[in-house]
Amino acid sequence: QMAVALGLGSVVVVASLFTAGLFVIAMVTITTLLWAMIARAKIGGQTGDILGATQQLSEIAALIGLSIWLA
């Protein structure tokens, strides 16, 4: 289910924004991976709070990526 959701979301973003979409996907991916590494190092994995924080950080990264790209 996660792979399907990720694939569909990526297709929609790239189709609507193309190169800006690729940049946003890269920003969100990097943010998520870094946050996962921090969570694993600090508390040994993920919790519901980590998932919520990941969503918030990913959204912030997407908005910053769009603002950088469109500036």
Description:
With 71 residues, the chain is mainly α. Helices cover 90% and strands 0% of the residues. It contains 3 helices and no strands. The chain has helices at 2-17, 19-43, 48-70. Helix 1 (2-17) runs antiparallel to helix 2 (19-43). The chain is globular and about 35 Å long. 8% of the residues are buried. The mean pLDDT is 89.
What is the straight-line distance between the termini? 35 Å
Q: What fraction of the residues are assigned to beta strands by DSSP? A: under 5%
Question: Rough shape?
Answer: globular
- The oligomeric state is single chain
Catalogue the unreliable spans.
none
Please provide the ordered H/E string of secondary-structure elements: HHH
Mean pLDDT, nearest integer? Answer: 89
SS element count, helices: 3
- The count of β-strands is 0
Overall structural class, as computed from helix and strand content, comes to mainly alpha
Key descriptive features of the protein:
mainly alpha, 90% helix
Short description:
This protein is mainly alpha-helical and 71 residues long. It is 90% helix and 0% strand. It has helices at residues 2-17, 19-43, 48-70.
